[in-house]
Specification:
CATH topology of the largest domain: Rossmann fold
Radius of gyration: 22 Å
Distance between the termini: 27 Å
CATH superfamily of the largest domain: Uncharacterised protein PF01937, DUF89, domain 3
Order of helices and strands: HHHHHHHHHEHEHEHHHHEHHEHHEHE
CATH class of the largest domain: Alpha Beta
Largest sheet: 7 strands, mixed
Strand order of the largest sheet: 1-7-6-5-2-3-4
Number of helices: 20
Strand content: 5-15%
CATH architecture of the largest domain: 3-Layer(aba) Sandwich
Length: about 475
């Protein structure tokens, strides 16, 4: 397409790319889990029409899984009411040629196409239109993150109370900067719980990613860290006395990560580094764990009434005859403090949820300024636009096979400095594309155990162990 980079994109046919493993191994597993979820929902349905339709949906999902596993050709998506969006996808399928098949297509587009196909199956039904096959998994991971959830709630409550008590006192600039970095690094490593990639990890492994000590150890794994520059942007706007200072967060995962994003938003508002935070979720179930508006309300309900979530056995606990440990009164108060904070910010218009269907289009963000000028103008008016997670990074950089030393600004193309948007990407690496690294760093990481060695594969960038925090200043 005309606004795309000329640098080749990663393809599912490349045996040295994580794309190959994704199409052959990960996607069939994800579809199987989706089928299981619908099956569980169908067995609890007494409405005969909904039951029959649910069974048909299971057949359609199984058919899609068969297409992927047997390397069939990509077919046009049926119009499900979002005509313009579907036309954009189908134009791309057509542009790939009549022989485009699952095992030899651009990774970024084909993965978006996969989830858009799934969405269309539900959209074209009568009784399951708004059903989210990933909702159960998303809430399960939030429940399993209980130790980290409670620790953060307690720390946040103390922090906000300190900020308010010392509002007029002289502040230690260095301490403020360190706190900013700590809050953002919590947010960064929250991304490490990406459900679509954790097909083999246990909840205990997820919890290890989230404890305080783990965060301190993980700091050395941030390969590029532009957080000090991002801090200066917000601090400068604050010290200049700008009345409206907005920060946008293009969200990634639900569950624990959305919880951390909300804590970050609350911190930015409480510390006066922003006067408004706009959260930008997806509009349809996406890449297993991505935030949709219903995840936001689900999280608010969980925090408002934490005992309903934490003192009630999960389905699995019920089957095993286990009972969760009751929540302490202090923990309940900490979570309810959070709810009050968020509810107040929301009612005062300081914390806003603003979906846009563009986030689930199939192309890279190189196309954003031309394809959605209205959204582009919105982003330009923010002091900072934070893009969370791996997929947003892939979309920003067009998921292209750039040399690892390519400057981040350059890899953003039309979303770089000329865009008028201050872009901050928080990303734990779970795909091949990486830019902005110092000379020799990629080669050094490949030589680590499991890093890919001389195989031609950048395996070190597949598992979420390493992170990059990149800034591109557009104003």
């Amino acid at each position: 397409m005309e606004h795309d980079t000329k640098t080749p994109q990663y393809r599912t046919s490349d045996p040295n790319s994580f794309a190959s493993e994704s199409v052959r191994k990960r996607w069939p597993v994800i579809l199987t889990q989706g089928i299981d979820d619908v099956y569980r929902a169908v067995t609890k349905t007494s409405d005969p029409e909904k039951l029959a339709e649910g069974k048909k949906i299971i057949e359609q999902l199984a058919g899609l899984k068969y297409e992927v596993e047997h390397d069939r050709k990509l077919t046009p998506i049926p119009d499900d009411g979002f005509t313009e969006e579907i036309q954009t996808y189908n134009k791309e399928v057509e542009a790939l040629g009549p022989d485009a098949h699952w095992y030899d297509v651009p990774w970024l587009f084909s993965e978006c196409y996969l989830y858009r196909r799934v969405s269309s199956i539900f959209r074209l039904s009568e009784h399951w239109r708004s059903y989210d096959i990933f909702a159960r998994q998303k809430m399960d991971t939030f429940r399993s993150s209980r130790p980290a959830v409670l620790e953060l709630a307690s720390n946040y409550r103390q922090l906000v109370q300190q900020i308010r008590e010392n509002k007029d006192a002289a502040h230690d600039p260095e301490a403020e900067k360190i706190l900013f970095q700590e809050m953002f690094e919590i947010c960064l490593w929250g991304n490490a719980t990406d459900l679509s990639l954790l097909t083999n990890l246990t909840y205990e492994d997820i919890q290890k990613l989230q404890g305080s000590e783990a965060r301190k150890a993980a700091e050395k794994n941030i390969l590029v860290n532009d957080l000090p520059k991002a801090y200066e942007i917000l601090k400068k706007a604050q010290s200049e006395g700008k009345k409206e200072r907005r920060v946008d967060i293009v969200l990634d995962n639900a569950g624990f990560e959305l919880y951390v994003d909300m804590i970050l938003a609350g911190y930015l508002l409480s510390a006066g580094l922003a006067t408004q935070v706009v959260l930008r979720p997806k509009s349809i179930p996406w890449f297993v764990s991505d935030v949709v508006p219903s995840d936001f309300s689900g999280l608010l309900n969980a925090v408002a009434n934490p005992r309903a979530l934490y003192d009630t056995p999960s389905e699995d606990e019920d089957l095993q005859g286990k009972k969760p440990e009751p929540l302490s009164e202090e923990a309940e108060k900490d979570l309810q403090f959070l709810f009050q904070e968020w509810a107040t910010f929301h009612s005062e218009g300081q914390l806003i949820l603003r979906p846009n269907r563009y986030w689930t289009y199939g192309g890279s963000f190189w196309r954003l300024p031309a394809e959605n000028p209205e959204l582009h103008e919105e982003l330009k008016s923010a002091e900072l636009v934070i893009f969370k997670g791996d997929l947003n990074y892939r979309k920003l950089t067009a998921d292209a096979a750039w040399p690892a030393t390519t400057p981040f600004n350059e890899a953003l193309g039309p979303m770089g400095p000329s865009s008028g948007v201050n872009v901050l990407s928080l990303r734990t690496c779970k795909a091949d594309v990486v830019v902005g690294l110092p000379e020799g760093k990629d080669e050094e990481l490949r030589q680590l155990e499991g890093g890919g060695g001389d195989s031609g594969a950048r395996k070190w960038a597949w598992n979420g162990k390493w992170a990059v925090v990149n800034l591109s200043q557009g104003h």
